[in-house]
Amino acid sequence: MGIFDEAKAKVEGLVGSDKVDSALDRVEGLINEKTDDKFADKVDQATDQIKERLGGHAD
Length: 59
Fold this sequence. Notes:
With 59 residues, the chain is mainly α. It has helices at residues 3-14, 18-34, 40-53.
């Protein structure tokens, strides 16, 4: 099993969990902080798409 297969298996085990949503929100915040919110709209769209594809709920 490759590294990506292992990562995918771990994520699939957490799909829809609050941990995934929380982690994505933290990453979104860090990116926005580092870029001075220059790309906030794009980062928000990307985060929402990831959450939807993983079965979570977008903000």
